[in-house]
Write a structure and sequence with these properties.
Low-confidence stretches of chain A: 1-19, 21-52
Shape of chain A: globular
Oligomer: homodimer
Number of helices of chain A: 13
Strand content of chain A: 5-15%
Radius of gyration of chain A: 21 Å
Strand order of the largest sheet of chain A: 3-10-9-8-7-4-5-6
Structural class of chain A: alpha/beta
């Protein structure tokens, strides 16, 4: 009970007031349903998104946490202690499945915070989600196999499955996330389903329980494997998080993927897969042939960081920070961009979508933004097939409130300029 | 000139005597030709070699350096300094090609010590040789493509090319290494040639200059790419090292692979490829889709370790240590195993072969050795096709001289027992 209370506190659902007790946080709404309507139409190419972040972040960089708030001194202290006391074992060849104490810490973390049901023997430590996708594609897919993909969806997954020769089946994402009925209409013999149920990439909504059950049911009927990419589930600013799809399954249908690269820092390069027991052996064997194992000293440092409670504390602090940044973005957008874009009411993640009120040439918006020193990405970059709305992804986690306001002002300027130039 | 002198000193070819000057080391022979004759016959399967080294090393563990002699305090001090001063840039998403200062340090190192001709723009930082092989196989090979493989050879390469659907062509290794004429007889349309010219894996000889030129010539004629795995070239205890095959080539034929995982410690997981300029883009693109990039803090620590001169000093110390361990092994074997096994006169590497004088069931030797607490690997594990000799690989780098002598005594006991049981 204490663990559950601590976890709920850590995640911001409960608040402890000194000398008074524990209270349910004031900002928990009953309904998390997002309100965007997305329809699929003709096909446009999904371009890859460059992640090379050599420059300091500007509005509205996506996929980057607030690195200047990362407790580097603490990490360095733990790292230094681990390096100075490193045993021969930590320097020698490691377990391709991952450093055992880290696998145990991960299994405990995902059980408590995500409702994942697993043993440490099902956990494989990897360099991140991308490596998991590449390895799973190579194990599961044969050329020509169909894969259900969320549309819009995650280009890293498109690439991984395309490299394995798969046929990507775009499945529409409506206001309630991935629609399994649309998937069944388009291809009822998929071998794999890729989904981001905690926080749809890029639209942000959580997949409701009935859709989750429907998705698992479709998967079992097709004998498809479901890859649950638990993307950004750590960052939810109000509402109850739904436990993982993996925890709803009887055992063999779902692979659960998580990563520390955005919750801590991108260049860490540690993520993990929680596999059905029957997949572990072939997955670890391929991993060994592909790149052996994850650097062990890094795994040991991360393990200490988690087991000493720093990971949970860091997430809690980042949640508060990102929530206030999202709030700054929403308010500035309401003031300066009302009637031009709308930001869905999804209090989660490191970024949000901004949906254009009028049909707009997204590539022109991107170009004009770039001239004003903005980093923007059009939603069209995440589409396998054209969707009924256009808009941008706006990252808010990596930049402070002043930069957020500058960015919104610049974006307003972009739309004013484009509007003036519009011939009709 | 000073650099070259320093390098030759670092590699043990010159000796500095305080107050007296620099002298050529006393133990440089004119001829490095090894004396083993290997002939290929019927085919036997190459089994994979498990690298999981959780237990302390025993005689005769292969592929493990002397971890108790690694300057961990120094590494920890450098690591701690890097972590405490880590910039935002080091925490953010990195360059899939590798941390630029490390690529420059590697380019300088391979130019000076290995005669490799390259710019930092041709260097890609990876987790090790295995990742390079997997990526190259995926870029270069189509199912059914022929690959020349040294026989006996490196099972990690067999696996990487098999996973890409390649047809492995065993090319015989005689007393002078890989024989290109045998390759041409077996398949004159190979797409790829894999070779370990500095120190043939597992037999240990260096490929002489005429064979190197012949090999490059064959590759150009077939329009094949050559993968030069510069395996264990750092550890040569006498004789001149031949410069890399890559440096003999005009530009587009050779990929040069190196690794820090055995020169420093296995769980570091940093190696590199030096690519022909025309391969860099597609290689880095695939690498990005497969696992993004190598952890940046680790790259920065390694970079400091190299540029501050510690890497060269560590190699020099390890060379002296391993040479004395090899010497202990050779002498003990002469005393206790004369007429039973012979150890070729190759003063290099972390391990040596021990060739059986009489035809012996290698699997029985492995089993009996294991009962006596030895770790031995039969040469048959490295064969694509049966070869004319049988023997073991004996690692000597990871264990001290007492353990080497215990191991030789135990091995003598193994052969005495097997001899007594022999029915004929």
């Amino acid at each position: 009970v204490v663990t559950v209370f601590e976890q709920l506190k850590a995640e911001g659902y409960l608040e402890g007031r000194r000398g008074a007790g524990t209270f349910v946080s004031e900002r928990i709404p009953d309904d998390l349903q997002p309100r965007i309507e997305i329809k699929t139409t003709a096909s446009i190419a999904a371009r890859s998104v460059t992640p090379f972040a050599a420059r300091p972040p500007r509005a509205f960089r996506v996929n980057e946490p607030a690195l200047d708030h990362f407790p580097m001194d603490l990490w360095a202290r733990i790292g230094s202690r681990r390096l100075h006391r490193a045993s021969r074992l930590l320097l020698a060849s490691g377990d391709p499945q991952g450093y055992r104490p880290l696998r145990e810490a991960i299994a405990a973390h995902v059980a408590t915070s995500r409702g994942v049901r697993c043993e440490a023997d099902q956990v494989v430590v990897l360099s991140g989600t991308q490596q998991a996708l590449d390895l799973l594609a190579r194990i599961v897919l044969k050329p020509g196999d169909a894969v259900w993909m969320e549309n819009p969806g995650y280009p890293g997954a498109f690439e991984a499955f395309r490299k394995a020769g798969a046929r990507l089946v775009p499945v529409s994402v409506d206001g309630r996330g991935l629609n399994p009925a649309d998937g069944a209409r388009r291809d009822s013999r998929a071998r794999l389903i890729y989904t981001t149920p905690a926080h749809q990439f890029p639209l942000g909504m959580a997949l409701p329980l009935d859709r989750r059950l429907e998705l698992l049911d479709s998967a079992r009927r097709m004998k498809a494997l479901v890859i649950e990419d638990d993307y950004d589930s750590e960052f939810r600013y109000r509402g109850r998080p739904l436990p993982a799809l993996q925890g709803l399954d009887s055992g063999d249908t779902v692979v659960f993927l998580g990563s520390f690269n955005k919750a801590l820092f991108p260049s860490l390069r540690i993520g993990y897969a929680v596999l059905p027991p029957n997949l572990v052996e072939s997955f670890v064997e391929l991993r060994f042939h592909v790149d052996r194992y994850t650097p062990q000293l890094d795994q040991a440092i991360l393990c200490d960081f988690i087991t000493e409670g720093h990971f949970t504390r860091h997430l809690r602090r980042m949640r508060a920070l990102y929530e206030s940044r999202l709030c700054a973005l929403t308010e500035a957008a309401k003031r300066r961009l009302d009637g031009v874009i709308s930001i869905p009411d999804i209090a989660a993640g490191l970024q949000t979508t901004a949906i254009f009120s009028k049909r707009t040439d997204t590539a022109r918006v991107e170009r004009a933004s770039s001239i004003l020193g903005l980093e923007t990405l059009g939603l069209h970059r995440f589409c396998l097939e054209r969707i009924g709305t256009s808009g941008l992804m706006l990252g808010f986690a990596a930049i402070d409130e002043a930069e957020i306001r500058r960015g919104v002002n610049a974006l307003a300027q972009v739309f004013e300029t484009l509007d003036r130039r519009r011939p009709t």
